Amino acid sequence: MTTKTKSNKTAPKHTATGKGVPSAAYWSLLEQFPLRPLTTTKDLDAAIAIIDELIDRPKLDVWEQAYLDVLGDLVVAAEEEQHPIEAASDGETFATLCEEKGVTQQQVAADSGIANSTISSVVHGKRRFTRDHLRRLSEYFGVPASLFSE
């Protein structure tokens, strides 16, 4: 079944449910850089430049802020896909936590009741922490156990 459509020679009115008419600044942003998946490094760099420009403005209208929020989400998604960050090993996480707290491996071993040899094996990638170790370290450092790779 075919449907006839009436020809409309005027531009459609841009409205949004419950939010009124988008601002001219919003439409200008869309013309400058349409919201779409960022599949290339060039797209990603251009999107980041626009984000920087918007952040530097003293005030954004609600539509510009919405554009900034969506573009930010697109940048995060593209960066995760194009430049994934490998998860830190338990040993790397442990070393970082020690450095941040200003404690030594030996001090953590003594305070947590985990054998220093066990911690050393994890730091050198020869073994992993057990659930009990993770619970103890979580309590010791005041971080969630999920911070470690488990």
What does this structure look like?
The chain is mainly α and 150 residues long. The chain is built from 7 helices and no strands. Helix 2 packs antiparallel against helix 3.
Work out the number of β strands: 0
Q: Percentage of helical residues? A: 55-70%
Strand proportion: under 5%
Low-confidence runs of at least 5 consecutive residues: 1-18
What is the overall pLDDT average?
86
Category from helices, strands and their pairing? mainly alpha
Number of helices, where a helix is a run of at least 4 consecutive DSSP H or I residues = 7
Evaluate the radius of gyration.
Answer: 26 Å
Name the shape in a single word: elongated
The biggest sheet, with number of strands, parallel, antiparallel or mixed sense and barrel status, is: none
The N- and C-terminal alpha carbons lie at a distance of: 58 Å
User: Helix and strand string, N-terminal first?
Assistant: HHHHHHH
